[in-house]
Amino acid sequence: MELTLHPIATKCFVSGRDFQENDRVVSYLVREAPVPGSGQVLGEVARRDLLESEDGRFMPPAFIFCRWVVAFKQRRADENPALTLKLTAENLFLTLADPAAEPSAANTPLLQFLALMLERKKLIKPRGLSEDGQRNVYEHRATHQLYEVPVGELNVEFFQKIQEHLGVLVGTPKPKVEVAVAAAAAAATTPGAD
């Protein structure tokens, strides 16, 4: 899963005020409403950064995928902004699971799914449970940083819920693909069909 999104903004989306070092910034990953008359079914995925003090004035779009709070850090002069434009599943996991970020129950299913996906890709490694047994501990292989993810049951309801969220984030398959798969399945089960 890979999205092209801008790195953290330098100004508040609501007030337009420049962020200062260590300002508490709330970041939203949202799906905007489609532009009327554009023929789009889904709107664009966007990142909205705002001062925590302005959070109450933010008028979010129809769908908020996730939200996190971080302390603002000025970009380094030697930083290549083009390299930070890709928001990958790994980067999203590292952002949401960051021990310095405030945990959010609304982000938990996404965080659990990302952990499952990154463990399968061998980007993180399970290290057992936290002392209280309420969180799985993972080690990020590249940085050796430990991250904790709330324990959850990965059942049918969990996957149905996360599928809806992922469909909003990356889009749902085109209907003709679903029709072609259904037609192929029907042909395979029809007696005498070879």
In short:
This protein has helices spanning 89-97, 108-120, 156-170, 175-189, and strands at 2-4, 24-31, 45-51, 63-71, 86-88, 124-129, 135-140, 146-150.
Characterise the protein shown here.
By secondary structure, the protein is an alpha+beta fold. The chain has a domain at 1-84. 27% of the residues lie in helices and 24% in strands. It is built from four helices and eight strands. It has helices spanning 89-97, 108-120, 156-170, 175-189; strands at 2-4, 24-31, 45-51, 63-71, 86-88, 124-129, 135-140, 146-150. Helix 1 packs across helix 2. The chain is globular.
| Uncertain runs | 170-177
Structural shape: globular
Helix vs. strand class: alpha+beta
Tell me roughly what share of residues is in helical segments: 25-40%
N-to-C SSE series?
EEEEEHHEEEHH
- Global mean pLDDT: 77
Q: In what order do the strands lie side by side in the largest sheet? A: 3-2-4
Number of helices: 4
The count of strands amounts to 8
Give the C-alpha Rg: 20 Å
How would you sum up the major sheet?
3 strands, antiparallel
Separation of the first and last Cα atoms:
36 Å
Name the beta content range: 15-25%
Topology (SSEs and partners):
Blueprint (H helix, E strand, L loop, with lengths): L1 E3 L19 E8 L13 E7 L11 E9 L14 E3 H9 L10 H13 L3 E6 L5 E6 L5 E5 L5 H15 L4 H15 L5
Antiparallel strand pairs: 1-5, 2-3, 2-4, 6-7, 7-8
